[in-house]
């Protein structure tokens, strides 16, 4: 269980499963005890610690531990915690899966939101389901279903993507000067697969990659899973600290740099124009490719749009990732990469080996959704709702969070980064917040090299303004009370005076 | 250009592109000359050789070479071939993509069919577009579009798959005893992604994997791309040679074994029941996991279905891969894996990092297609058409192929393996076959360690019986003529008598 590094103990629990959460957790731990992965005498994390880590109520964890104790697999010792007592089952088959499956690199998975009396879960960075224009979506499906080439949409396709969609996106990219002469475009299953393919093509185990710190968990886990060494570049209000970046690029010559230029996940920060230019110049001098992940760029609620790094790059060292997921329907996995042809040729080969090609039905539907103008109509609605939600979030932070709290001021996207005043710890606060119906992801999920225990991410885009206000009000009250409690604990106890 | 190993020179040319094939080939080679990848003085393959290799007409290759010569990039020398004369362009940007992109591991891509006066392209192993039941497909889409949970289908989903589909497939797997107690099921983007995820989870560079020889190109390229060493197990009429396999498993202890139990690609061979049992026992003794790729199993046109290896395995060492692609719509990328939970837990994590989850629209549509009975109706039609096509192929082989030719006798699937009589070479024969409107994949595309120059794959399932008969008749005539030509060349020339 590696109690020294509890983040490694992170079962993927499903809040949508019919199996109760405590039972899922029970089965997860029981399996590890029976397989021998957790040996007799090993100490389980404290219920409070595990609850905070997994974003569960402490009662859920306690129920799982009770069930494990009833099953004779663990025993509690007063004041010391719970210890494994059960024995592994003898191996029955020829394949020892547990020995075979290197246990070191199971990825952490955060709480996925959802619990008893939920007020507001700020956990998921995803659009609001209530905003989905279902009738417009149906209309685009109908249009695809009546196309004469429906048969070819259903037939095996090209690894490059559904050609009409690819051409549409390439035309758009050329029109916006996002594609340079000689650039190519590849359709992927969202930005996540584009990042995966880039890693597969460019990385060898032990390579260094420069990323933002804090950074999107899915990127961190992907790259470390590929054996990369991550160098974190601190993210400030203007995005990456480019002076720091310049030193890292010069000293470490990383294999590539990943940057989220707009409304970065988790901080919401946007790279200023000057910082974009400085980043490009530093990357050019060091000969380091720039992977510009722009999943959120189309979600600007206020202020002027900035040119993409890819647009500013005159030297062909940048590859740009975009997606339909954040601005339309994430359940349809369609994104794309634009960049220099030699790289794109290799990404296309990697794509073919990974899964032949991206689902063509969704590609065709999203093409119609875009070409019919329905995407623009939807985007306008999403932008308006996003502006209200962002305003509600920023306003509530000002109104409810105690003095000394700091937060970012994004102009778009889905996320806000909050830094609690000393001595509050976002992970320790979480179980109490969840008991009161509020959830978020503590900063440690996003940490690369700087573990900021006082930070947390609030993903506001999927919530109604009212939920946002109520949720942040509760957070503010809890924070205030915990600060008072902490300051009382710092004073001499009255009984001793 | 590594003329010593021409298979490495295999640009991915698209027959569906608006850019003519000769121009695509021109650009591919020009790019490599300009980038310096092909150095001054390097010899290009002969046009005939390259045409055979890429499945192109020789005139296409000649046109590309002419254009390269006009552009001053190559020069022909009578009787010696064409040589690179052009100079690489100086690097303009900060990133040297060509130096960065390891050139050694570009994957070979075969001819993709389609050319001037096509009679029959036996190149693609895919279902017939003409058989797609478009109205039934539309009906299933309509049913999904009217579902009350349409919004959640469009929202970000679970890496495990769309839960109603996952449950349906798991119930089916349990009903058929394909899932053991404690097994789990994961939805993937077809079998290809399942193979990819298994490789990602189980393989480290340098690991050995046992595969059939010959084997599906997409598997060969995937595994070698991951740095695996492949050990080929010869495939006979009853599938893998299990005595050979037993020796390999004992001696090499590969990381895992991949086997296509039914209608193997490329040979069409099916593992007998005795061979399945022998394989399982050998794997159990050696402690080697079995990956059973069963993409074709549902396409049995005659004879009795055999139990899957997964069904026979009582020791939990087998993982089974299946897919909707071959029996319904390959453009919708939905397959699944059933196997031991510890492995499936890891595959689900890898899936989440690879692309978050499989497209949910297609999952929902295929679930409706299956549950409404439309899949069964379609399968019955596919089986009937498949039986006719297989009969046409086998009958035509008997009727038209010259004495000494041998071929497999599959009872289902999409592929037939033909071994030409001596001294015919399937690669050398291809340019002539293509000139006469017939294409196929030479055996070398599928070779692991035994290069069988006389073998070729005929993928018959996508062609009408008439096309199959005409195509094989042409092949037979060409073979007969080439045999006669070869035997004349063996006799003393009459001019010298």
What class do helices, strands and sheet pairing of chain A give? alpha/beta
Instruction: Output mean pLDDT of chain A.
Output: 89
What is the 3D shape of chain A? Answer: globular
Which strand order spans the largest sheet of chain A, edge to edge or round the barrel?
A: 4-11-10-9-8-5-6-7
Strand content of chain A: 5-15%
Give a short account of the largest sheet of chain A: 8 strands, mixed
Q: Quaternary arrangement of the chains shown?
A: homodimer
Radius of gyration of chain A: 24 Å
Structural topology:
The structure is a homodimer of 497-residue chains.
Chain A: H1 21-34, H2 47-54, H3 58-70, E1 74-77, E2 81-84, H4 97-100, E3 120-121, H5 134-145, H6 150-154, H7 163-175, E4 183-188, H8 190-202, E5 208-213, H9 217-225, E6 229-236, E7 239-240, H10 242-252, E8 256-259, H11 273-286, E9 290-293, H12 309-312, E10 318-323, E11 335-340, H13 341-355, H14 360-371, H15 374-400, E12 406-407, E13 415-419, H16 426-435, E14 438-439, E15 441-442, E16 455-459, H17 465-490
Parallel strand pairs in A: 3-14, 5-6, 5-8, 8-9, 9-10
Antiparallel strand pairs in A: 1-2, 4-11, 6-7, 10-11, 12-13, 13-16, 15-16
Helix pairs in contact in A: 1-3, 2-3, 2-16, 5-14, 8-9, 8-13, 10-11, 15-17
């Amino acid at each position: 269980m590696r109690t020294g590094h509890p983040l490694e103990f992170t079962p993927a629990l499903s809040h949508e499963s019919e199996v109760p959460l405590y039972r899922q957790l029970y089965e997860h731990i029981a399996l590890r005890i029976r397989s021998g992965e957790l040996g007799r005498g090993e100490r389980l994390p404290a219920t409070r610690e595990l609850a905070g880590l997994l974003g569960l109520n402490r009662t859920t964890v306690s129920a799982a531990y009770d069930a494990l104790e009833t099953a004779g697999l663990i025993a509690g010792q007063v004041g010391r915690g719970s210890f494994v007592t059960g024995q592994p089952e003898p191996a029955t088959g020829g394949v020892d899966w547990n020995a075979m499956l290197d246990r070191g690199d199971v990825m952490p998975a955060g709480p996925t939101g959802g619990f008893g009396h939920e007020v507001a879960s700020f956990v998921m960075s995803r659009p609001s389901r209530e905003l989905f224009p279902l009738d417009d979506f149906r209309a685009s499906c109908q249009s695809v279903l009546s196309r004469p080439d429906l048969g070819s949409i259903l037939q095996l396709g090209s690894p490059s993507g559904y050609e009409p969609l690819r051409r549409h996106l390439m035309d758009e990219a050329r029109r916006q000067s996002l594609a340079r002469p000689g650039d190519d475009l590849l359709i992927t299953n969202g930005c996540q697969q584009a990042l995966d393919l880039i890693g597969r093509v460019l990385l060898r185990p032990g390579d260094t990659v420069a990323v933002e710190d804090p950074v999107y968990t899915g990127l961190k886990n992907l790259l470390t899973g590929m054996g990369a060494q991550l160098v974190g570049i601190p993210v400030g209000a203007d995005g990456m600290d480019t002076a720091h970046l310049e030193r890292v690029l010069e000293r470490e010559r990383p294999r590539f740099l990943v940057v989220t230029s707009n409304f970065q996940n988790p901080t919401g920060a946007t790279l200023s124009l000057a910082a974009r230019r400085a980043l490009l110049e530093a990357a050019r001098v060091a000969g380091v490719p720039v992977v510009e992940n722009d999943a959120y760029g189309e979600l600007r609620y206020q202020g002027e749009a900035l040119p993409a790094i890819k647009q500013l790059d005159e030297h062909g060292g940048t590859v740009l990732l975009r997606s339909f997921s954040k601005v339309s329907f994430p359940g349809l996995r369609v994104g794309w990469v634009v960049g220099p042809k030699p790289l794109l040729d290799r990404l296309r080969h990697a794509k073919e080996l990974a899964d032949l090609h991206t689902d063509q039905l969704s590609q065709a539907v999203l093409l119609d959704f875009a070409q019919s103008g329905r995407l623009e109509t939807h985007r306008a609605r999403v932008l308006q709702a996003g502006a209200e939600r962002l305003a509600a979030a920023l306003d509530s932070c000002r109104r409810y969070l105690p003095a000394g709290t700091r937060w970012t001021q994004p102009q778009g996207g889905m996320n806000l980064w909050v830094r609690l005043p000393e001595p509050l710890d976002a992970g320790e606060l979480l179980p109490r917040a969840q008991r009161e119906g509020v959830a978020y992801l503590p900063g440690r999920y996003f940490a690369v090299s700087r573990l900021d225990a006082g930070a947390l991410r609030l993903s506001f885009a999927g919530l109604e303004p009212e939920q946002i206000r109520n949720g942040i009000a509760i957070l503010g009250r809890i924070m205030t009370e915990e600060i008072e409690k902490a300051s009382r604990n710092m004073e001499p106890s009255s009984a001793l005076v």
